[in-house]
Automatic annotation (TrEMBL):
It comes from Paenibacillus naphthalenovorans. PANTHER family: RIBOSE-5-PHOSPHATE ISOMERASE. Keywords: Isomerase. GO terms for biological process: D-ribose metabolic process; pentose-phosphate shunt, non-oxidative branch. The active site is at residue 104. CDD domains: RPI_A. Catalyzes the reversible conversion of ribose-5-phosphate to ribulose 5-phosphate. One of its GO terms (cellular component) is cytosol. This is Ribose-5-phosphate isomerase A. Substrate binds at residues 27-30, 82-85, 95-98, 122.
Amino acid sequence: MNENLKKLAAEKAVETLESGMIVGLGTGSTAYWAIKRIAERVWEGLDIKGVPSSERSEQFAAEWEIPLIGIEEIDRIDVTIDGADEIDPFLRLIKGGGGALLREKVLAANSDKLLIIADESKRVETLGRFPLPVEIVPFAVRLTLNRLRELGCTPTVRLDGDRPYWTDNGNFIADCQFGSIADPEWLAVQLNQIPGVVENGLFVRMASAAYIGRSDGTVEIIK
Ligand SMILES: O=C[C@H](O)[C@H](O)[C@H](O)COP(=O)(O)O
């Protein structure tokens, strides 16, 4: 059911792409549908170059023969299409449920447009029910978690089986349960001031639009 809604949203966002664009490829189960649709449009003649936000997305894109360009070869991305874990009414986001938040944020910060795609279950009034992913260095994890706790959350190091989950950048993820985040802008700044934190999953003032797949079969576009 939700897969259909994710696919609907993804396909609508991919309609906006035009030949000549450099396109950021997001990560996750919703971005998967966007990458698949981009591949179909490439087969139909769309001339774009993709920049993947994770090794996983790079594999899909390469397998489906989307032309890729290295991050070191570009100065700007025209559009990035990516999923989200939570979206509030001001288009502030929690991202990183799939562990790709750092590369996703680099892409988002260097994109003229960030189009978010999601099914309607991702919309919230207030961010924070989804544990906020924070990428941390593997050195001094205990001390970094202590600092995170001081900001009012319960942090847990994400596991992959019985070992810590490693990001594509060789770091760990602390999933931080806040419950409710009253001021995402303030929190994003505080988190990144903690030595040991590489980046956090709050995306504020980044999304240009959100494409929301709804159970009535329509896609709502929030700008
Ligand atoms: O790190 C992963 C990303 O931020 C994803 O875009 C996010 O977790 C949403 O993923 P999904 O579309 O699978 O719900």
